[in-house]
């Protein structure tokens, strides 16, 4: 910390409006800062003008200064976030010194890049602020200083001042968990207030008194105490975005637990705001909207979540520009069949009083998401049964529709024995993984529940992705080096399709025209080589797994799985000469090829998202359900985690998938019907090698057990689960 100056969160953080006395105090702070660092003031000339700067970083251990300069300083009002964006760089003169003293990383090239975004800082036509930061975070607002290039353990502690165009950082870089190093940081530079376009700024209601009315295009009012909108709101004729927010004072409380706003009425004068594009009011006592709101023809986003609305004006449902409509947590009981929202993309009517949905919603051409959970539905037209945008819980869908799975051709399913997919506890007691799992359970507090815990195990085929140099043969691991190269199980590369088969393609829009694009090949699984490990895959032949692209996963036709029954028909993939531009979105012509080491293993479920996936315990005794409810942490530490550590596989067949929400099997059942336990993961492809699914996630191919046993791979559900 700068010598002679102590920073405390309680005494230093201030927000607008600044009183005359507060402005005097701030000016005094700045004068003291410049007096302390007068020797460090530099005149820096850029392409347009000369500005005064201070750039002083000192190692507190030896009081040595790391010489530096401020470069590329600029600020603007972001048209995207509607906040004040400040960016600047600090260039260290001696890069190696900065690395050696653990100020910067070796990859920073001696440069620290600062970025911060601020709101509630406007007064009398310029930014003004006095804010205190700990661990890069402001102690009183949702502000964060981003410093790229800084040694990873270091964070900023100190004050940010903004006044009369000056931006000043006065504090230290230090670690929250290590005593050293500590660097005093004293940075200052001045920018032109005239460069700021305040018409892009989102004004807080406390700031508008000193703003030019034509600049107020975005307005937010936090936790108001009035029951009707103040008259001056209607005077901002350039207003495009209006937000009235019940801001949580207790972050542990959920939104519906907050005390609602006193706001009850919106005046018909709202129609005067003809440029309004979005209005968002949450957790208020509003029971109805004025009919005049339908005159706001530019509205594209409307959010009245957690209010008390019983209905909306009928003509509201015909606003031509409306794209996003959020009405969750109200008391709406009816949506008119006459609705006509040609541009609607997302509608949220969760937790209202709806008895049905108008069939017209199923015909909205642009609708992507229709959230409708938590309504007392009595009837939904059959058009909604497989309507992909509709988001209902699985049990809600089962109550409204005949949700039996009827197979790909609608002719029903065949009978099957679930023992095919499970571990046989009677005949496989010598199976290494099973014996280790039994030991894990016996050493835990859940030993009395050993049988129902073991009943949850799936008999899985596990793949370790390897290169040719890693190929091994052992008693428990089977590598297919007895096969010729063609037909070998592998991930990435190209498929060994029969000569009679063309590489699969699909039609898609590109540059305004329909073009034929290649599927991305992911895996080739030789079922014949796996026949002695399981009895649920085809006994002969090979499976080939494709996706259109990462961006298509989640759509109903995003995959293709090809089954070739006779391996004698397979032909070398060397004939496929594809180019990256022939795919929807690829940077190479193929994923890097990896061969696969195969082993028989087991898979155990994660109960992280048990609230969503309670079907996992459908056949389990009440004692296990109670144990998981009462001792979830202990169960994870003593059972789940140790079992998870037994398996180091990359990809798998008939495995459980980790998810934070609905399991892949439940998602498939929700879309196509049947019970989630009747679906299985026919292939999990992990983020390995070139495969990168979202944030290091897993890609799942899911199919119904009846279809699998009939070797019918026409209906595959695909999804990605990622952190």
From TrEMBL:
Protein name from the UniProt record: Leucine Rich repeat-containing protein
Short name of any one Pfam family annotated for the protein: DUF1963
Keyword annotations from UniProtKB, A to Z: Leucine-rich repeat, Repeat
Repeat listed as a keyword: yes
Originating species: Acinetobacter marinus
Top-level taxon of origin: Bacteria
InterPro entries the UniProt entry points to: DUF1963 (IPR015315), Leu-rich_rpt (IPR001611), Leu-rich_rpt_typical-subtyp (IPR003591), LRR_dom_sf (IPR032675), LRR_domain-containing (IPR050216), YwqG-like_sf (IPR035948)
PANTHER family: PTHR48051, RAS SUPPRESSOR PROTEIN 1
SMART domains given in the database record: LRR_BAC, LRR_TYP
A GO cellular-component term linked to this record: cytoplasm
UniProt entry tagged with the keyword Repeat: yes
């Amino acid at each position: 910390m700068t010598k002679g100056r102590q920073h405390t969160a309680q005494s230093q953080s201030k927000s607008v409006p600044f009183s005359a006395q507060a402005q005097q105090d701030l000016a005094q702070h700045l004068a003291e800062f410049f007096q302390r660092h007068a020797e460090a003031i530099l005149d820096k000339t850029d392409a347009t003008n000369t500005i005064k700067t201070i750039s002083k970083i000192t190692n507190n251990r030896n009081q040595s200064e790391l010489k530096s300069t401020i470069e590329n300083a600029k600020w603007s009002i972001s048209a995207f976030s509607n906040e004040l964006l400040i960016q600047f760089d600090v260039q260290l003169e001696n890069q190696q010194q900065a690395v050696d003293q653990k100020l910067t990383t070796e990859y920073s090239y001696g440069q620290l890049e600062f970025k911060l975004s601020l709101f509630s800082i406007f007064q009398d036509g310029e930014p003004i602020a006095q804010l205190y930061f700990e661990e890069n975070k402001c102690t009183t607002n949702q502000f964060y200083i981003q410093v790229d290039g800084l040694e990873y353990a270091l964070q900023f502690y100190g004050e940010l001042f903004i006044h009369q165009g000056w931006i000043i950082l006065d504090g230290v870089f230090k670690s929250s968990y290590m005593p050293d190093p500590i660097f005093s940081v004293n940075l200052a530079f001045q920018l032109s207030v005239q460069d700021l376009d305040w018409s892009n700024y989102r004004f807080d209601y406390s700031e508008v008194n000193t703003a030019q009315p034509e600049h107020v295009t975005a307005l937010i009012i936090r936790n108001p105490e009035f029951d009707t909108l103040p008259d001056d709101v209607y005077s901002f004729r350039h207003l495009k975005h209006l937000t009235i927010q019940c801001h949580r004072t207790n972050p542990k409380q959920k939104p519906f637990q907050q005390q609602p706003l006193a706001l009850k009425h919106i005046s018909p004068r709202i129609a005067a705001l003809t440029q309004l594009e979005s209005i968002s009011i949450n957790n208020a006592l509003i029971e109805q909207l004025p009919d005049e709101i339908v005159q706001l023809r530019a509205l594209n986003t409307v959010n009245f979540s957690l209010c008390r609305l019983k209905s909306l004006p009928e003509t509201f449902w015909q606003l031509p520009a409306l794209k996003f409509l959020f009405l969750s947590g109200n008391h709406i009981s009816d949506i008119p069949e006459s609705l006509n929202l040609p541009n609607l993309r997302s509608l949220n009517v969760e937790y209202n009083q709806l008895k049905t949905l108008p069939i017209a919603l199923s015909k909205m051409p642009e609708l992507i998401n229709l959230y409708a959970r938590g309504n007392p539905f009595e009837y939904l037209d059959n058009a909604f049964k497989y309507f992909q945008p509709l988001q209902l819980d699985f049990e809600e869908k089962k109550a409204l529709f005949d949700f039996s799975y009827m197979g790909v051709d609608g002719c029903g399913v065949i009978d099957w024995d679930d023992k095919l997919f499970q571990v046989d506890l009677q005949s496989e007691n010598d199976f290494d993984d099973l014996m280790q799992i039994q030991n894990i359970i016996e050493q835990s507090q859940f030993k009395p529940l050993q049988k129902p815990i073991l009943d949850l195990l799936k008999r899985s085929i596990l793949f370790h992705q390897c290169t040719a140099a890693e190929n091994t043969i052992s008693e428990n691991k089977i590598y297919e080096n007895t096969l010729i190269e063609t037909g070998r199980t592998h991930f990435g590369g190209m498929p060994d399709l029969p000569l009679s088969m063309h590489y699969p393609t699909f039609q898609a829009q590109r540059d305004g025209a329909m073009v034929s694009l290649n599927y991305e090949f992911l895996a080739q699984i030789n079922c014949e080589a796996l026949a002695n490990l399981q009895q649920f895959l085809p006994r002969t032949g090979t499976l080939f797994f494709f996706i259109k692209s990462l961006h298509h996963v989640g759509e109903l036709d995003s995959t293709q799985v090809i089954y070739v029954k006779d391996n004698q028909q397979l032909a070398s993939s060397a004939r496929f000469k594809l180019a990256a531009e022939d795919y929807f979105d690829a940077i190479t012509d193929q994923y890097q090829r990896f061969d696969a080491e195969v082993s028989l293993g087991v898979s155990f479920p994660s109960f992280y998202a048990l609230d969503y996936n309670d079907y996992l315990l459908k056949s389990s005794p009440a004692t296990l359900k109670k144990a998981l409810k009462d001792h979830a942490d202990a169960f994870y530490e003593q059972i789940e985690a140790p079992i998870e550590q037994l398996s180091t596989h990359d990809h798998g067949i008939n495995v459980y998938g980790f998810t934070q929400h609905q399991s892949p099997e439940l998602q498939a059942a929700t879309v196509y019907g049947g019970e989630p336990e009747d679906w299985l993961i026919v292939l999990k492809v992990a983020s390995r090698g070139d495969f990168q699914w979202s944030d290091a996630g897993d890609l799942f191919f899911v199919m119904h057990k009846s279809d699998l046993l009939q070797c019918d791979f026409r209906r595959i559900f695909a999804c990605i689960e990622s952190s």
